[in-house]
Design goal:
alpha+beta
Length: 454
Amino acid sequence: MALTSSPSSSSYPNILQFAVNSPSPSVHYLLFGSAWPNASPILLQKSGVPLLPVVVKPFSKRIKCFAGSSTEEDRLSEPETLAAEDVDDDGGSEDPEVQQQQSSITTQRITSSSSDSLSLGIREPVYEVVDVKSNGVLSIRKINRRQLLKSSGLRPRDIRSVDPSLFLTNSAPSLLVREHAILLNMGSLRAIAMRDCVLIFDYNRKGGKAFMDALLPRLNNMNGGHCMRFELEVVEAALLSRIQHLEQRLMDLEPRVLALLEVLPNKLTGDILEKLRMSKQMLVELGSRAGALRQMLLDLLEDPHEIRRICIMGRNCTLKRGTNDVECSVPLEKLIAEEEEEEIEMLLENYLQRCESCHGQAERLLDSAKEMEDSIAVNLSARRLEVSRVELLLQVGAFCVGVGALVAGIFGMNLRSYLEEHLFAFWLTTAGIIFGAVVAFFLMYSYLRTRKIL
């Protein structure tokens, strides 16, 4: 289609003439008409043949161009858009047929989207947790991911650190501080501490049971009240249960390793060596867990921003950007937050020392076990060396005797040598063979001692 001038432009000064070039001979032209009196006429022409001018309405609003789409959603949304434009052109009046068409399109889109989600087979994860209130009341309930995010104010990426389904891939200890919650990952213990409750995942595991055993007595002791906030009580109970678990394992391993070190290397048996190997493996695992917890506590102590974020949780306070200073609307809350920051640092320092002590003792026992293995290896090497020396002496003796056997074999041939006629030839030959073998043995032995082979 090309734009040309109209021969009848004097009659219609605003006439536009188009030349329509189509490969199909059946398609000649398109006519657009309108009944508005103030419309401008347009003349369509094909191959020089003028057509009658038609009148169209001048459209002052923006023109939307819709690209062709192969998806069903685009084809469904196009009539809806055109219908909305018709409503605007009519000045707000809406046709019942248009309303019915829009409702049918919306219903179809909702049905298709729901069927697509069902066809994907994606289920929203549901967690079974123990909800421990600040007054010590326990309740077991099921909560899906959406409700968990809404109640704790967390983001979906934050849940990955405490998700029980990622136990094997995300086992490193971590303590994440968010605006309204603290996420705890202590290996087998995974929990979310909020202002008035804590949600414990995998409460049937050993870490969850130890955590509840450490937390509930603190919450049920109402005589003196809580010396710290509920969130800090939860953090301390989690650290206490984890440190006690590591210390208990160390207390179980230490006498076993010391008993093995007393027996070895004098008594080398397969059972004792297997016990040493298992003890060493357990010490390596214990040292790695204690080292990971120690590194987490060091990172927290070296980052005052995280500690201050714990202090301002549940308070009308903020942190300045750049300086990380605490700003509170009430001056008393600022003083309380500063005092609480010191308490948190002392708390973390205490558990850091206990963790370092456990880690150091595990490393010392592991070093002792490695030294014992080296001593056993040296002992076995010395024994193998003695065996090799005996084998070498036997080989030298066998060589000397073999030379004598060669002489005896030569005289054993059924050939005349005129020595058999002499009376003492047998005894002289035998004595010569023995003497030669002994002399050869001592010569070989002195040579090997000179070369420090023996």
